[in-house]
Amino acid sequence: MGVRVNRRRLLIAMAVPLGLSWVTPGRAALPRSVQAEVDALLASIEASGCSFYRNGTWHDPKAAVAHLRDKYDYLVARDLIATTEDFISNERRRRAA
């Protein structure tokens, strides 16, 4: 008598360990002081009432902050910044290129 195997359970049982092997170790979070400084910068942009020109289109402050927040999250997730100055310099460097 053969063993009857539920294929779906077998696939799940195989996929879970494989999936966990792809998870990278957590990166160290930025110091709270850096997060607070970036939050303050973004809050001042949002409260500025200014319009921001990006890629040929004008954007309100809320859209500008959303864009910058996405960039900040991207850089933090990839461990590309360690200070507020790194965030500002990275953005300025990209603009100059």
Write the SSE topology.
Layout lengths: L6 H15 L10 H16 L4 E3 L2 E3 L1 H17 L6 H13 L1
Antiparallel strand pairs: 1-2
Structure description:
With 97 residues, this protein is mainly α. It has one domain (28-96). Helices cover 63% and strands 6% of the residues. A two-stranded antiparallel ribbon has the order 1-2. It is globular.
What's the short version?
With 97 residues, this protein is mainly α.
Reported for the largest beta sheet, the result is:
2 strands, antiparallel
What is the helix tally?
Answer: 4
Radius of gyration, whole Å = 22 Å
Helix content: 55-70%
Integer count of domains: 1
Question: What keywords describe this structure?
Answer:
mainly alpha, 97 residues, globular, 4 helices, two-stranded antiparallel sheet
